[in-house]
Specification:
283 residues; eight-stranded mixed beta sheet; binds iron/sulfur cluster; TIM Barrel; alpha/beta; single chain; 13 strands
């Protein structure tokens, strides 16, 4: 059957071949207890993270490009995916963290019919997802964790090939913001948290992203301003991306978020911009 799930709407028959997202069936790159998610997601550092392969965005600087650009990993059925959720929970996972699963939404819904986790389920997304697709998965999700990467459509087109990214992500975040917030014992168990990766030489765009967020989500919602950008991927044509973010750039973005009244901001120190924090996909 032709697939029109994500905003690309490429119409590929994924029974026959991979779509523009790079995959056919559910492809799991890695599933393990991930220690490096924000503390409000996993206070004890045991995030039951499932990294999915493929992506319908094509960020030139993707920190996970080994798995986002190809069907690397293992193809599983919805029933097997349900078993992965159960195994992670049995291992002590504090959540089930679905990383870039936007292009598998109908299959995810089926997986939850085989195993419904007892810990919060996190939909960890690049933000390039339609409201129609979110409606399908919403009953199974406790916490939305979208990125909001760019304000400028031109910048989005330059770095991802998707000029509609800002409009799609803003609409998706408006949808996600309807999820009631539940914070218990230092853990976000329901609601919305937004991530923004600060890029070198683009702090003005980051500020415009924050302007939009200030009108879209509650100022009390967790806001994660990521400093982990590490030069990698297809950045040869973009010399400004060949370095890490400076202290001055990062502080400018954090201070702007504070000036807008965001009260629950998560920051990273400069040491987070290290390839060693990127999962080893071959383990
Ligand atoms: S999810 Fe993949 S196959 Fe479906 S429309 Fe998007 S890019 Fe195409």
């Amino acid at each position: 059957m032709k697939c029109f799930l994500c905003p690309v709407k490429c119409g590929t028959d994924r029974e026959l071949r991979a779509g523009a997202c790079g995959v056919r069936g559910i492809t799991v790159a890695k599933a393990y207890l991930h220690p490096f998610e924000e503390p409000f997601l996993s206070p004890h550092g045991k995030s039951g993270t499932v990294f999915f392969s493929g992506c319908s965005l094509r960020c030139v600087f993707c920190q996970n490009f080994e798995v986002s650009r190809a069907a690397k990993g293992k193809e599983v059925s919805p029933r097997e995916l349900g078993t992965i959720f159960r195994d992670l929970e049995d291992m002590g996972a504090e959540n089930i963290d679905l990383v870039t699963a936007d292009h598998f939404i109908p299959q995810l819904a089926e997986a939850f019919s085989y195993f419904r986790p007892h810990v919060p389920v996190i939909f960890n997304s690049g933000g390039y997802v339609t409201e129609e697709a979110l409606s399908l998965i919403d009953p199974f999700i406790d916490v939305y964790l979208p990125d909001f990467k760019f304000f400028s459509p031109l910048l989005a087109e330059k770095f991802t090939g998707r000029k509609d990214y800002p409009a799609v992500a803003e609409a998706a975040i408006r949808f996600m913001a309807k999820k009631p917030s539940v914070f218990e014992n230092g853990q976000l168990k329901g609601g919305l948290a937004v991530r923004h990766l600060v890029l070198p030489a683009h702090t003005e765009d980051s500020k415009r992203v924050l302007d939009v967020l200030s009108k879209t989500i509650p100022r009390s919602a967790p806001l994660s301003l990521m400093r982990q950008y590490t030069p990698m991927g297809d950045i040869g044509a973009f010399p400004e991306l060949a370095r890490r973010v400076t202290d001055r750039e990062y502080e400018k973005v954090v201070n702007y978020a504070l000036s807008l009244g965001f009260s629950d901001i998560y920051t990273q120190d400069a040491a987070s911009a290290e390839p060693s924090f990127i999962p080893n996909w071959d383990e």
